[in-house]
Design a protein that fits this description.
With 484 residues, the protein is an all-alpha fold. Helix content is 63%, strand content 3%. It contains 22 helices and 4 strands. The protein has a two-stranded parallel sheet. The chain has a two-stranded antiparallel sheet with strand order 3-4. β1, α3 and β2 form a beta-alpha-beta unit. α9 runs antiparallel to α11 and α12 packs parallel to α19. The longest helix is centred in the middle third of the chain and has 35 residues. The N and C termini lie far apart (137 Å).
Length: 484
């Protein structure tokens, strides 16, 4: 095997060197027939021998290979055939860099078939539910599990047979009783025996596909554990197999950087985001890994970045390393789980406040308040206030305005019988209040004196003329003179 691989690479093996040194003399001028031109060039450079390679030599070599059993009599024909077959297989593996222990092509085909089986099983089960639902529609709401539903349909057949049939090996006791009760009051249509035969045939196909899928998944799990143990421990069998299938091979996946592994499978979203200048995706196929999918939404981006970095290291160890154990993957998974807990505690601390604990809310106390509705609030029109005519005879200074200016209580002003105003004051208090009261009294006396004069003048004019117009004019003129 070593001599054959050396010849394929155009090198001279140790045994070939010994043979050439013994047989070929240094001073000989003979030509050496070779089946490979590359090997002949190496021999010429090494031993300074003339090598010949042409169609005639190729035909000669073919004749020698066909007559190997007659030329080598020490080895039987059966042993020679077995050795030739083993050498051919080993040489083919070497040419294709093909290892029997690391068959990533089988993983690619297995995971693709597994995805196709899932799609077909889903279609078949939905068709079975819809088909048998015309006869027994209540069964679909009672039995939710797809596998149990298909097995129940296969064993039950006509719904009328459920009264005497034992379904304990398919359904638990409570569901079995519910199915029997629903069969007695079912609203489904009647179907023939031929219809039931085709439905049970579909159920047989579904059960066989489910059994084969479980076997295929077990095969995929064993292959992934043999080829990429670290990647399997870190991401899982399905996610690791899909990454290898998307990249083309384990070696091609090992050449990708961590940033590419992170978004592998989301190429359309990436290019769409770059075209429209939006945010690029944070994860692709790696999102379905348990470490990312089970983390909270706020730390999914950080976790996908860290998982992709550790996954790239695991892939390179699986593709290029010589060990077959999963120690690195186990170590990295433990590190990532601790990191996820740390990030979760930090995020909860941001939400809860200082110390990383949960946020403390005030205790809610219900205070019942009763509000009464006032119907007057419905009126949006402002009411019109009638202005009363001014009575100049009984007019007195408004003490309320003065009180607003000086911040004191209202002073009562009363008109006496002789027309003089008498003020009643409260007993003076000490300090600033007494001063303010004195000031208010002085201002009111000053305002009241001219008003009394005008009232007396108006009364005299009324007595003299007896007309209302002259009275109003004289009042106005007197008031204007006083103001001037």
């Amino acid at each position: 095997m070593s001599a054959a691989t050396a010849a394929v690479e155009g090198k001279i093996g140790k045994k070939l060197k010994k043979v050439l040194k013994k047989i070929v003399a240094e001073d000989a001028n003979e030509q050496l027939a070779v089946a490979d031109s590359l090997l002949g060039k190496v021999i010429k450079d090494k031993f300074n021998l003339t090598c010949v390679h042409n169609t005639a030599i190729s035909e000669l070599m073919r004749c020698i290979r066909t007559q190997t059993n007659n030329l080598i009599t020490e080895v039987s024909e059966r042993e020679n055939t077995a050795m030739s077959l083993g050498l051919a297989h080993g040489l083919s593996r070497y040419k294709l860099k093909f290892s029997g222990d690391k068959i990533d092509t089988m993983i690619i085909q297995a995971v693709s078939l597994l995805d196709d089986l899932d799609k077909e099983l889903n279609n078949y089960i939905m068709r079975c539910r819809e088909w048998y639902g015309w006869h027994f529609p209540e069964l679909g709401s009672v039995v939710q599990d797809h596998a149990a539903y298909v097995k129940t349909v296969k064993k039950l057949g006509m719904r009328t047979a459920s009264i005497t049939m034992d379904l304990s090996d398919v359904l638990p006791a409570d569901l079995e009783q519910r199915v029997k009760d629903a069969a007695q009051i079912s609203m489904g249509t009647e179907i023939s025996d031929e219809d039931i035969r085709h439905i049970t045939g579909l159920c047989d196909q579904i059960i066989e596909m489910q059994d084969y899928r479980s076997q295929l998944f077990e095969y995929l799990r064993n292959r992934m554990a043999a080829i990429a143990p670290n990647l399997t421990v870190l991401l899982g069998e399905l996610v690791g197999a899909r990454l290898i299938s998307h990249a083309g091979s384990l070696m091609s996946l090992a050449k990708h950087p961590a940033s590419t592994i992170q978004i592998l499978g989301a190429e359309k979203a990436l290019f769409r985001a770059l075209k429209k200048k939006h945010d690029t995706p944070k994860y692709g196929l790696i999102y379905h890994a348990q470490l990312i999918s089970q983390s909270s939404q706020k730390i999914k981006g950080k976790m996908s970045r860290m998982v992709a970095a550790k996954a790239s290291l695991s892939i390179r160890v699986d593709a290029l390393g010589e060990t077959d154990d999963a120690d690195l993957g186990t170590l990295q998974r433990g590190y990532l789980e601790n990191k996820a807990k740390e990030l979760e505690s930090i995020e909860s601390g941001k939400m809860g406040g200082i110390g990383g604990g949960p946020k403390k809310f005030d205790k809610y106390q219900n205070k019942s308040q009763v509000f009464q509705y006032h119907g007057g609030n419905d009126n949006t029109m402002t009411p019109k206030v009638k202005k009363e005519p001014t009575d100049f005879f009984n007019q007195s200074p408004a003490p309320g305005k003065l009180n607003k200016l000086f911040g004191e209580e209202e002073l009562k002003v009363e008109n006496g019988d002789n027309g003089h105003a008498e003020t009643t004051e409260e007993p003076p208090s000490s300090g600033k209040k007494s001063k303010k009261r004195k000031l208010v009294a002085e201002v009111e006396e000053e305002v009241a004196a001219p008003l009394e004069d005008t009232v007396s003048a108006v009364a005299e004019n009324v007595d003299a003329s007896g007309g209302k117009k002259k009275k109003k004019k004289k009042v106005k003129t007197e008031a204007e003179e006083e103001e001037a």
